[in-house]
Amino acid sequence: MTDAAADPLRAAADPLRAAADTMRAVRDRCVWSQQIDHRALVPYLVEEAAELIDAVEGGTRAELREELGDLLWQVLFHAEIASRDEAEPFGIDDVARGLTEKMVRRHPHVFGDAVARTPEEVLVHWNAAKAAEKSARTSVLDGVSPHMPALALAQKMLGKAAQARVPAPPVADGAEPVLADESALGDALLALVATARAQGWDAERALRERLRILEAEIRETEASSAT
């Protein structure tokens, strides 16, 4: 073996390259890895992302480091699969190169002459660069994945609704004094789920159905604005 996975000195000098070479060796020599494609890897990607969230929110530093590595392995795995595609191959170097170029574009206050003294000003530059990159998109909802968990999707879509100038749903009466912090919000959300369960309702489905209504409102507003 001549790859970085079998060369401790090279691995120490360039551990990311060693990880990529290790992935290549696994793909070449492991019969399980050889038959996996992008779609078959998705459940593992979801699982590793969830475990990383657990480590961020309640794990040790060692657990966080390990879970970051496991998620990186998923990126390397997908890139290695992609590198062998007959029609449109690309590898981890292409992924990294594209990421670097995008981050440079979206941080003109770091790599260019733009100025950003507050987080809000940074966001203006970020959104402007992103809008230029995604100029072919026709809706603020383009690029929003429907596979996100319902609560995360709801928070994302409310932000998109604000961009489209669609009125946000009213805040529940008395919510402001009761929900003093995120812990109280968690209690309130759990209470709502408990209510749904007691009534025989599906809380996830209820929120998704309401989000479909919000999606229709956003698209209707966009269509009206375009005419």
Radius of gyration, CA atoms, in whole angstroms: 22 Å
CATH class bucket of the largest domain: Mainly Alpha
Major β-sheet, in short? none
Q: What is the overall pLDDT average?
A: 88
Provide the CATH topology of the largest domain: Helix Hairpins
Summarize the helix and strand pattern as letters. Answer: HHHHHHHHHHHH
* CATH-level-4 superfamily name of the largest domain: MazG-like
Annotation field: number of helices: 12
Gross CATH architecture of the largest domain: Orthogonal Bundle
Determine the N-to-C terminus distance: 64 Å
Residues in helices, as a percent range = over 70%
Measured by DSSP, the beta-strand proportion falls in: under 5%
Task: Report the structural category.
Answer: mainly alpha
Low-pLDDT stretches: none
Oligomeric state of this protein: single chain
- Number of beta-strand segments: 0
How many discrete domains?
Answer: 3
Overall shape: globular
Domain NTP pyrophosphohydrolase MazG-like: 38-111
InterPro entries: MazG-like_dom (IPR004518), NTP-PPase_MazG-like_N (IPR048015), NTP_PyrPHydrolase_MazG (IPR011551)
GO molecular function, one term: nucleoside triphosphate diphosphatase activity
GO biological process, one term: UTP catabolic process
